[in-house]
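A.,

Following up on our hallway conversation. Structure tokens first:
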């Protein structure tokens, strides 16, 4: 066992981040790491990979790190990736991180870290496209799945979005964060995300979009359906002042574009707050659509909304005023832009094959 974090290799910061996510400068190389690869398969007969992250969590809490902690698995600039049939335990930082990758499949994996372990995200596709995440159980100390695309001016400059992402049949819990999050690092843009058949329980948040002035970029054409929630503090949350920035050189006038976000067929019990939807003043989040949502809510103010605009139908408890416009034929495409597009097919021999949008 190495004696301190300085014994672990350091690599350059990601160009879309400009520095390590936690600390300036480089970052510790991931425990399983690959660069510029084609046709990568990481699989096993339900075997286990243990990141033994507790020593890194202690260094983080003690503020003795000089560089950002390593991921458990990171693949960069690679294509044709399959990660399947494995259990990943105790990542030092984010668990599975494909960044600048294409054609990525993560299926039949279990990801577990203690509830209070810091920043142990489950699966974080980052500036990556044609991604499929399916049939997974995730229980960690941070977001179970977080879609990212770079940080402030560095992400804007690098300009590689995350897009064409399928997420389906995911079960899990997180006491501190969200079942599925977009952001907060989304400066290269996130679009064409279809998430369905989700079950989150005993968690802080169900679905969350995180952004901030200075991020720029966009989040659009997001379709989330068939969601079951149980024991969730906030079912749906938009946070527009997440606030962390890589340095003082970001442009506070670089405002994100958030539009065409649909939540459909959502049921929940033991929910404290149905929605906390905070847009940016002067940068209204547009075409937010809620349809067929039934939540058993304990709060006397189930919805709290600001600087958003959209439509709703069959929502209980009744939604906030900015979303009370009914879904009408002229708004149909705004609300269901993704639902009529089939853009992924399966092949038993070749895994998941993505079709052009």
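Then the amino acids I'd put at each of the 357 positions:
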């Amino acid at each position: 066992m190495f004696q301190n974090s300085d014994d672990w290799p350091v690599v350059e910061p990601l160009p879309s981040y400009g520095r390590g996510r936690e600390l300036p400068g480089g970052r510790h190389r991931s425990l399983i790491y690959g660069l510029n690869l084609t046709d990568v398969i990481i699989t096993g007969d339900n075997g286990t990979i243990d990141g033994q992250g507790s020593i890194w969590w202690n260094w983080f809490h003690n503020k003795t790190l000089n560089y950002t902690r390593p991921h458990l698995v990171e693949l960069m600039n690679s294509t044709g990736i399959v990660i399947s049939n494995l259990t990943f335990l105790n990542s030092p930082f984010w668990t599975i991180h494909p960044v600048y990758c294409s054609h990525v499949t993560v299926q039949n994996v279990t990801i577990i870290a203690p509830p209070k372990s810091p920043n142990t995200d489950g699966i974080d596709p980052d500036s990556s496209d044609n991604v499929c995440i399916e049939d997974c159980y995730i229980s960690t100390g941070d977001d179970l799945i977080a879609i990212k695309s770079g940080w402030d001016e560095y992400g804007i400059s690098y300009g590689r979005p995350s897009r064409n992402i399928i997420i389906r049949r995911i079960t899990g819990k997180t006491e501190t964060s969200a079942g599925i999050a977009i952001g907060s690092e989304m400066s290269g843009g996130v679009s064409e995300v279809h998430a369905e058949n989700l079950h989150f329980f005993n968690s802080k948040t169900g679905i969350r979009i995180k952004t901030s002035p200075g991020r720029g970029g966009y989040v659009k054409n997001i379709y989330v359906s068939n969601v079951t929630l149980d024991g969730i503090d906030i079912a749906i949350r938009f946070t527009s002042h997440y606030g962390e920035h890589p340095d003082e050189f970001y442009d506070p006038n670089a405002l994100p574009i958030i539009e065409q976000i649909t939540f459909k067929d959502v049921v929940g019990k033991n929910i404290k707050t149905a929605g906390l939807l905070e847009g940016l003043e002067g940068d209204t989040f547009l075409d937010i659509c809620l349809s067929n949502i039934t939540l058993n809510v304990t709060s006397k103010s189930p919805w709290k909304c600001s600087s958003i605009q959209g439509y709703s139908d069959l929502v209980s408890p009744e939604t906030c005023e900015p979303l009370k416009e009914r879904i009408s034929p002229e708004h149909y495409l705004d609300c269901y832009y993704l639902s009529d597009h089939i853009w992924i097919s399966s092949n038993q021999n070749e895994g998941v094959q993505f079709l052009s949008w």
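The two ends are 48 Å apart (CA to CA). Curious whether your intuition agrees with the design.

B.
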